[in-house]
Design brief:
The chain is α/β, with parallel strands linked by helices. It has eleven helices and 15 strands. 35% of the residues lie in helices and 25% in strands. The N terminus is likely disordered.
Amino acid sequence: MTALPNSHIKSALVAGAGSIGRRHLSNLKKLGLNKLAACDPHPERLEYVASEFQVECFPTIEEGLENFQPDIVLVCTPPVHHVAQALQALRAGAHVFVEKPLSDRLDGVEALRDEAARRGAVVQVGYNLRFHPAIQKLKELVDASAVGKILWAHVEAGSYLPDWRPWQDYRKSYTARRELGGGILLDGSHEIDYVTWLFGAPRELVCMAGRVSQLEVNVEDCATILLHFPDGKRVDVHLDFIQRSYSRYCALIGPEGKVQWDLLSNSVQILRPEVETEIIKFDWEINDAYVAELAHFLECVRTGAQSRFTLEEAILTLRVALAARASAEEKKWVFLA
């Protein structure tokens, strides 16, 4: 089916006026879209974005959809609301950008996928690391077998939850609350997403996860997942929000060498025996990937092209994250295929 007839994007509604909603409002303006609105049940958030971004404001997404009639909707609410609000936006005739994770459960995701296909609508999920030039370089090197077929990989992302949004009591954030779709396995699923982008769907996994810190949360704050792929590849992914210093990197090991990425050094290194290490540096700032993902989404809406990163891929990432949580809770291997 062809895309919805929105070749000219005139308006955008951002559902959720928290930190990520504000970032997207700012970036939409940078990309030249100025007819903007926001909806949020918290009056103080709406007051802030109205002043900061000069946008129309609504207390509910229903009022925003009815009164503003946006061409695109960005769903930036807690994950527990994502699928229902994305469906509302689709049925109102909009294309939809959904912040990660797609949801906190699998219920409804196939209905969302089918509704988007039926309407010919663009639905993209906000896994912005796929737009980081270093991660794109990793994909290029893996596909080219730069160090041979990858046999094993280690992936890590760690930071400290109270530092994520220092203006907010971390205990009130969705990340800290199971009932809102929080936990490091879901909110930290960027790493799961780029691993499945690099290597495809794992066959089975086992996970050790739980609350190990003194942070006042009711979710897992630390998780280590062991993934086994159909071709025999093993990948371990460590995620936490308890490290007081920021850590984000990976190492991909093949029979002919190793590829390393480190976000803090903004570099990819290719290490081979008896060969000088190749170092590729990137001139990149954290917001660049957020701008790039929105630019790609807007381009797909304007041209009718399918997003390079499909809803089916986001569903796979969610399946892996939820399987990891089930594995940790049930203390067993989980088979995905």
